[in-house]
Amino acid sequence: MIRLSALQEASAVDICVYLFARIRQGLSQAVTEISAANRTKFVVIDQVCDLDIAMLLVKAGCHGYLSCDDRGFDLRRITSVLLAGRYWVPRAVLERIVEELTVDRDAITESLCQLLSPREHEVALWISRGLSNKRIAREMGVTERTIKAHLSHIFQKTPVSDRLELALLMKGELPERIRVNLQ
Predict the structure, then answer these.
(1) Closest CA relative to residue 86, chosen from 34, 41, 36, 39
(2) pTM metric for this prediction
(3) Does residue 29 belong to any structural domain of this protein?
């Protein structure tokens, strides 16, 4: 552990610990530093556990969050967990993050797929399975030209711009570019 001076950047150390009192002075600065860091692992020790603050911090890139009165508060153990690339956060935070990701992903995929005709949706499903235009045409009993037309309509109706992004969309894994464009 290294105590940072006002002039030293957090990126210069392996682990950086923030201690917050009830008023959480410096929270926005902490979020900014956490978001900008590449290899530094951040731990926030809060006076009182606040799941909303924990969510904000973890989404920014914080690897550890706990309150002063948490049982099992062993800084050496927490440090070894973080250095191994894992997280030390309340289970409720991880559950909420997974739930948010799942709900967002499913809702976005469903809403985008509703823009497609049944045949376009079928083509998109075949694309997600990795089939070529020729093979899809055979499976659907149409020409390759028809498949290309369906793909062209799909690309016009959705924010995807190529087969890979379409396959990811159909599997519920949206590339970051699409997530940003949808918000």
Answers:
(1) 41
(2) 0.51
(3) yes
98-146 confidence digits (pLDDT tens):
777 665 556 666 777 788 999 999 999 899 888 999 999 999 999 999 9
Q: Give the other-Cβ count within 10 Å of 106's Cβ.
A: 11
What are the backbone dihedrals phi and psi of residue 19, each rounded to the nearest 5 degrees, phi first?
-110, 120
Q: DSSP strand E in 11-78: where?
A: 15-20, 41-46, 64-67
CB half-sphere exposure, 79, CA atoms < 13 A:
10
In sequence order, what are the beta bridge partners of 42?
Answer: 16
- The C-alpha angle with vertex 33 and arms to 11 and 96, in degrees rounded to 5, equals 115
136: domain range?
97-182
Q: Does the pLDDT value for residue 11 go beyond 70?
A: no
Contact (CB, 8 A) for 16 and 10: yes
Q: CA-CA distance, 14 to 26, in Å (whole number)?
A: 20
* Same domain as 147, residue 84: no
- In a shared domain, residues 148 and 166: yes
